[in-house]
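Can anyone check this?
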Amino acid sequence: MDEVLKRQDSGELKRRLHGRDLIGFGVGIIIGTGIFTLAGVEAKTHAGPSVTLSFVLGAVVAGMAALCYAELASSVPTAGSAYTYAFATLGETFAWIIGWDLLLEFALGAAVVSRGWSGYLANLMGLSPEWFGEDAKVNIGAVAIIAVLTVIAVLGIKESARVTNLLVLVKVAVCLLILAVGVFYIRGENLTPFIPPAQAPTETAGSLHQPIVQAALGLEQSVYGIAGMVTAAAVVFFAYTGFEALANLGEETVNPKRDLRVGILGALGVCALLYIGVSLVLTGMVPFTEIDAGAPLADAFDRVGQHWVGALISLGAVTGLTSVMMVELVTIGRIGFAMGRDGLLPKKFGTAHPRWGTPHRMTIAGAVLIAALAAFVPISELADMVSIGALSAMIIVAVAVPVLRKRRPDLERPFTVPFSPYLPIAAALACFYLMLNLDVMTWLRFAAWLLLGLLIYVFYGRTHSRFAKDGLSSTDRPS
């Protein structure tokens, strides 16, 4: 544990961020695909108008996890987020698993969003579908935006924050416009029944695409009803992923003990209110069975004759998704930086640029992987893996809170989770329950990714970690 705490004073990253910057980063990564796409998709396919309750449930679970993140982030303000917390409480093996998990979450998330960005840009500007959007053989638009944002992320954290904050202002303004105009077009009959009765899906997708809790209990596939609302909550949890990225910026925050909790909880609260409001307006404007899955909000306003609002929504989607990718690139760099510094990844990834003070090598390496995925792979079916990766990371963080309190009761905790250990335990169980509502194929893909990671750890990480070089066995390595 003491070894982990010493890292924050290495001076390798520059402290230049304040609470307002962190809130901007948080809103920047959270508001994006969830509000512009997932709300409509999940209302149509799983929940109906009760998708609003799905966002409420997701916000409650994310809020409990955020409290755990806030305590650990203020106590251990260092790069690496849940990876570092796992290292400090559960040891090296668990730390590797969660770090590998987080790299999957943010890399895949950025690839998904970059493809969506390319499609929105093509729609807004009439660009060729041969190079932009899901039908492109090589998605040049997705690769181009990743390349531009990588340059900004490498040049400096403050520069990244300025770009992100500007984009956040634009998309928050668009969200407020949606609420201000859309509320006048809500029709009560579209919200009745608020929780549609459960029914069999129109198309049977097969057992591998059934929620694992239904498959385990031998239940028939169904949509809507309470089960559909919870399934939608598990999927739209993707929309809340990102607040944990702020915990990676502990070494670059001027006053981490205060600003980290302000940034994490503030960003989550703002985004939850916007999600709930926008999903209610959307399902009130259009019957949920008629929602357009590609551009639900823009289509909803086109239906009521407000085409100018639809155009602004497309602009908001482009800016919103840009800020999501910006923060995900920043986050991948910090996670890989922490793992490289510990020797679990090659040491060159654990160094910061001498002038810009950013983990440039890891940021560029992550960007290359993201661009390759975004260019060639239609990954819409893998979007659920972002949720399962985030939920599993949050379980580790929730467990780490009471473990760290027991191991280090003397550690200064500027922010403490109330009702510990009961609230952290409840957070872990709630995250696991949402994971059980993701489909079987998502679990199989997740298991394959974890297996690959364990093989890398066994054959590289264990022998190259800084503790191994100190002559400590895996059981003796300090946590």
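Reply from J.R.: I decoded it. The chain has a mean pLDDT of 81.
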